[in-house]
Every structure is written in C-alpha cells, then in structure tokens.
Specification:
hydrolase, about 60% helix, binds magnesium ion, transmembrane helix, rod-shaped, seven-stranded mixed sheet, Rossmann fold, alpha/beta, membrane, single chain, GTP-binding, disordered N terminus, transmembrane, binds guanosine-5'-diphosphate
C-alpha cells in the first residue's frame, strides 16, 4: 500500500509531476457493505493511511449522483483513490456499499457510494438516501455529479436526492440551529457537470441549477424555528464543468488536474476545504463518530448532530483519559514499595508533578479537540483521579518524613547533650527550629498544586511531637541537674553535721539546721538560675524544687543517721563522758586521790551525758525559726503521683525528725551506763593502786 507523505502542516504536498497515474493509489476500504453493515476496521485504516493522529488536519469529501455517471472515475483522477470503476467493455457491476479511501499526497478522506444500477428502484432510493444523510453528517464537501443534459430537469433523480439532502440537513441541526445558528458549520455542495459540450456557458447552468435549488428549498416544510431560514444559512454552492472524457480525453485530464489543485492548494482561488466546512470531529474520534452516525441512520433514528458530537466527546474523552491514566498508573507504581517500607523519596514532589503533567498533557493533546465543555469536565475528573492515585504517596511520605525527622531531631539533641559544655536551651531550640523547618520544606515540596491536600494538620502534629521530645529532654536534664545540686549540697553539709553532732548540746540541731538552710538556699538559687535558661515552666520548677528539698532533707537525715549509728554514737557519748569524768575543768587529766569525790563527779558526768541521748533522738532546734518543715506525700499531689508511678518512695516528714525510737533511747542510755560503769571501776582501781604504791 502506498504511504502518502504529509508536510509539516499536515497538508498534502502537490504532486510534482502532476501525473496521477504514476502517483500510485492508496488502498480503499468498504466502510458500509451490501448488507448495510458498518466496518469496524475503519480505525485501522486511518492508521494505515497515517491520519489517525491528524487531529483536525484532515478533510472529508463525499459524492452523490446517479449510477454510472462517472463518479468513481472522477474521484480516482482527482484524489488518486482506487475506487472500483465500471468496466467499459464488460459492463461488470461494482460492489454495492459506501467506500472510503485516502487521497494520495493529501490528507483527504474520500467517500464513494455504489448503488445497484436502479434495477430495484425502491431499495436503491433508500440506500441513496441513507448514504446521503451519512455523508452530510461527516463531509465538508458533497460533490454532486451529473450530466449536462440533466441540468434543468427539475423532476430528475438528482433534484429528488437534493431535496432529501436538504430535508435531512434541516433535521440534523434542528436542535441547535433553532436556538443559535452561527453559520459557521456550513457544507459545500459542489456541482460537477459532466460531458459539458460548451454550448451553454457555466454561468447559465449555474443560474438554472440555483433556480431549481431555491424552488426545492421553498417547497420544503421547515421545522419549528427554522421557517424563515434560507438555503444559504446551511450551504454554499459551487459549480464546475468537465468535458466529455471519451470524446476529449486530453482536455478532460487537463481540467481534472486543474480542479485537483482546488482540493490540495490552500492558497488557491476557490479552495474547497474552507475551515468553516470542517465538521470538527478529531481524526481519532472519527471511527466512533461514523459508526454511531451510521447506526442512527440505519435504524432511522432522529439524528441530532450537536448531541452526537457531545456524546462522541464524552466517549472519546473517557477513552483518552483512561489511556493517559493507564500509563500514569504504571509509572507511579514504582513509588509504592519504598514509601510503604518507610523511605523518604527525595524527588517525590517533582516526580509526582511530572507524571501528573505528562498524563494531563497526553489527555489535553487529543481531548482538547472535542466539545469544550465536555473536555473541561472530563479534565477535572481526570485530575481528581490522578490526585486520588497520588494521594497515598503524599500521605505515606508525610508519615515517613514525620518519623525520620523526629528521630533525627532526637538523635541530634541527645548527641549534643552528651558533653558538659553546652547550653541546653540553645541546643534544644536550635534543633527544634531546624527540624520544624526541614519538615515544613519537605512536606511543602510534596504538596502538589491543584489538589485539596494540606500539610497544616501534619505540621501541627509534628510540632507537638517535637515539643514533647524537647520536654522529655528537659525533664531528664532537670533531673540530672537536681542530682548534681544534691551532690554538692551533700558534700557541703557533711562537715558541719559531723562537727555539730560531735559537740552535742542543746543548740546542736540549731547548728545543723542553720548550715542545712544555708546550703539549701544556695542549692535553690543554683537550680533557679539553670532552670531559667532551660525555659522550665513554673509548674516544673515547683515540682523540681520540692523534690530537691525533699532529697536534700533525706541526705541530711542520712548523714545524721551515719553520725548516730550505734558505735559512732557510743563513741561520741564516751568522748563527752570522758571529757567530763577524766579531765578537770581546765582540761587536765585527773589522777584520782582518796579525797576525790569520785562518786559525785562520776554521777554528774554520767547523768549529763545520758541527758544528751534525748537531744540526739530528735531533730529539734531551740530556735523555732530554724525548724524545717516539708510537705509529706499525702500533702503533695505531685509527689503522690510520682509515688503512684513508682518513681519515688513515700515521704513522711514528721517521722524523719525522730531519729531514735523510745526503746533505742533506753537501750543507748543503758549501754552507755554500762560503759560508764567500766570507767568508774577503772577509776577506783587506779586510785587503789596509787594508794598501794
Ligand atoms: P459511477 O457508477 O458513477 O461510479 O461510474 P463509473 O466511474 O464506474 O463509470 C461508469 C462508466 O462511465 C464507465 O464505463 C466509465 O468509463 C464511464 N465514464 C467515466 N467518466 C465519464 C465521462 O466523463 N463521460 C462519459 N461519457 N463516460 C464516463
Ligand atoms: Mg462508482
């Protein structure tokens, strides 16, 4: 088969040597067969003819006229088509039906009609009417082929057919024309008068035919709304003659070639395919359109072209959209696995945008040629479908971003908090705003335009999570700080407590508590100074300070316990006793003499020492102002909650003041007395031995 070449404009290039015979012929097809069945292969032929992607850059031309008036002969000569021609010697019958072929070197589809030689006139008229109707609905130009001697025969077959054509046309556009006849969708009726002898000039023939046409138009009963319409509202008319093919073969060929340029050369005077004749059916929709039109014609349904075009637009836009979406769906599949696996695709936003634009561009390229409103509506539908298909990736990536950036935030913060030399608030605030910025940028990048997607909610949730982690870090940091302050305080109170408890007396606890209060004050101000730089809340401060006080108090108590443990306490008592019993008021060791009142001195030293036991037994300053008072767990809801969570022990302040039970007091006193007795015995013994010497 010949493959005609189109120039860049999609227009046919002129045949250089002008010889149709050497140009070759395109393969024809039977569009409608003898049984009036439509051939669904037409789409394949359009591909073969390189017209499937032509959009509007193709033309369609059809012919009507009596049987054996040289129609096929003319078409083949004009367009280089390969329609069957009646064999002159054998008078062999051609195959009935509607035939279609592509013009050679021009983007023109040509339709030829083969009747059945008028033997069964009724049947033939029916087919002729149907094919004329079919041609009117699709062709830009309807060639009316007739012999010269038929001109003026108003009752002739041609005029009957034209009457049908006009009637049918009124019906075709009835719906739209009645409302708004733009005059932009006319059809050209081109009379080719064959076997022109030349005696009657073309002008006269034209006048005769026009008069007939007006008469026919006037005789038609017009549908509502079109009563006053004129024939020119729907049709342009043109006329040409051709000499006798057999009597003047060279002249015939010459004039046919001249006529041909009117179909091929857009710049030629009298160019046939004016834009306003085009039926505006994109080439890719033509198969469907022609088939639907033929079905309507065959089943004698009312043909309403504007409605047909809208239906075609819906059908084709859906088809085009589904092809575009199919390719798109395959392309975007690659996103699924990594996103489901938790990965963050760096270029996801750009990639999604590209795939979507590509799908829309594919759709626009073909669908934009169809009915504007339908196209717009279908485009919105497609966009929604594309967005819906992309949405899971958007949401998935958002989730992954959230997780990944949150994790890296936590890692960076903890990493920077490892050393000693850092400003906590600066670290956390810095990392926080960095993480929030990163998340905002990354999520904005995947939030495509022309969607109803938003990142606000996710952003708010992210900020909340970041803040929560920051709060956790601060709580840890505060705990660390409190521990450190506690340690310092412990060190500080150690010596004063040891000293105070080593020199017992009634103001012993005053000394202990004064030193405790001083250290506590320092600890608190040290806490508050740091807490301020952490941006701790008032509530956090309250909790931390009360915890600090409690722990400091327990530390003090532990120190006191250590200093009042049995052996330590006993040695303290012993030491006090010894000072009083074995040394005189000047601190000089006594050497017992017989006159000495050992018993009296002993009793006094012992009793004074025993009297210290109750002082040791309870933390109680003589100066009321030095008394410490802390809330017990039952009075402190925050601490109660901590105890509930198992984070701390129950704290009962009053019980921490009591160091010894009553029993221990008695035990300690008894034990001490026994030790003191030993001293007494030893003293007596030493005196006896000194006397003995
Ligand atoms: P169709 O049935 O209208 O398609 O006619 P064909 O093209 O098959 O031609 C029918 C017969 O008319 C053939 O024998 C042709 O040779 C002959 N023919 C074709 N063109 C002309 C012409 O211009 N004048 C005359 N007199 N005969 C022609
Ligand atoms: Mg024919």
């Amino acid at each position: 088969a010949l493959q005609p070449k189109l120039d860049t404009n999609g227009a046919a290039s002129a045949n250089e040597n002008g010889s149709l015979e050497t140009a070759g012929q395109a393969e024809r097809m039977q569009l409608v067969d003898e049984d009036q069945k439509f051939n669904s292969d037409v789409g394949k032929y359009l591909e073969k003819w390189h017209l499937a992607d032509a959009g509007f850059a193709y033309d369609l031309c059809a012919v009507v006229g009596g049987q054996s008036t040289g129609k096929s002969t003319l078409l083949n000569k004009l367009f280089g088509t390969s329609f069957d021609v009646m064999n002159e010697s054998q008078r062999r019958q051609t195959t009935k039906g509607i035939w279609m072929c592509r013009g050679v070197s021009m983007p023109v589809l040509v339709m030829d009609v083969e009747g059945s030689d008028g033997r069964e006139r009724g049947e033939d008229q029916d087919f002729e009417r149907k094919s004329a109707l079919f041609s009117m609905a699709s062709a830009e130009c309807l060639l009316v082929n007739m012999w010269e001697h038929q001109v003026g025969l108003y009752q002739g077959a041609n005029m009957g057919l034209l009457k049908t054509v006009f009637e049918v046309n009124l019906g075709l556009f009835q719906a739209s024309k009645a409302k708004n006849h733009s005059g932009k969708d006319k059809t050209l009726i081109f009379f080719v008068i064959r076997d022109h002898i030349g005696a009657t000039p073309l002008e006269n023939l034209r006048a005769t035919l026009m008069a007939d046409l007006y008469r026919i138009w006037d005789s038609l009963s017009k549908p509502e709304g079109l009563e006053t319409s004129r024939i020119e509202d729907f049709f342009d008319f043109d006329f040409t003659t051709l000499p006798h093919k057999l009597l003047q073969p060279q002249e015939f060929d010459k004039q046919v070639l001249q006529l041909r340029t009117r179909f091929t050369d857009r710049n030629s005077k009298g160019f046939i395919f004016k834009p306003e004749y085009h039926k505006r059916i994109p080439a890719d929709g033509l198969p469907r359109y022609l088939e639907t039109i033929w079905e309507q014609v065959v089943t004698n349904k009312d043909l309403d072209l504007p409605t047909q075009q809208e239906l075609l637009a819906q059908f084709r836009c859906d088809e085009i959209a589904s092809v575009a979406f199919g390719a798109f769906a395959t392309e975007i599949k690659a996103f699924r696995k990594p996103i489901e696996a938790g990965s963050v695709l760096e270029a996801l936003g750009a990639d999604m945008g590209t795939h979507r634009s590509m799908a829309l561009a594919k759709f626009d390229k073909e669908a934009s040629r169809y009915h504007a409103d339908v196209y717009k509506k279908k485009r919105v539908e497609l966009l929604e479908k594309l967005n819906a298909a992309l949405s899971p990736f958007f949401l998935g990536q958002l989730k992954n971003l959230h997780k990944a950036i949150l994790a890296s935030f936590k890692k960076s913060v903890l990493g920077r908090l490892k050393g000693d030399n850092y400003d906590f608030a600066e670290v956390v605030e810095g990392e926080k705003s960095k993480a929030e910025l990163t998340f905002r940028a990354a999520s904005t990048a995947i939030c495509l335009a022309d969607t109803d997607w938003t990142i606000d909610e996710e952003l708010a949730q992210f900020n909340e999570d970041v803040t929560q982690i920051a709060d956790q870090c601060r709580a840890e940091e505060t705990k660390k700080m409190v521990t450190q302050i506690e340690r310092t305080l412990k060190k500080e109170i150690s010596e004063p407590v040891e000293l105070a408890l080593a020199r017992p007396g009634t103001d012993m606890w005053d000394k202990v508590l004064r030193s405790f209060s001083e250290s506590m004050e320092k600890a608190e101000s040290s806490y508050l100074k740091k807490a301020k730089s952490f941006n701790c809340t008032e509530e956090e401060n309250t909790v931390a300070l009360s915890s600090l006080r409690r722990r400091a108090w327990l530390a003090l108590r532990a120190k006191v316990d250590e200093q009042t443990a049995d052996t330590v306490l006993m040695s303290k008592l012993r030491s006090v006793f010894e000072d009083r019993f074995r040394y005189d008021d000047e601190g000089v060791p006594r050497v017992w003499k017989p006159d000495d009142d050992i018993d009296g001195i002993f009793r006094q030293a012992r009793d004074e020492t025993v009297a210290l036991v109750p002082i040791y037994a309870k933390i109680e300053p003589t100066d009321r102002n030095l008394a410490v008072s802390l809330p017990s767990t039952s009075e402190d809801p925050a601490h109660a909650a901590m105890v509930e969570r198992g984070e701390d022990e129950e704290f009962d302040f009053p019980s921490t003041l009591n160091l010894f039970s009553e029993t221990r007091k008695v035990e300690v006193a008894n034990r001490f007395r026994k030790e003191a007795d030993a001293y007494y015995v030893e003293a007596k013994r030493s005196m006896v031995s000194s006397i003995a010497q």
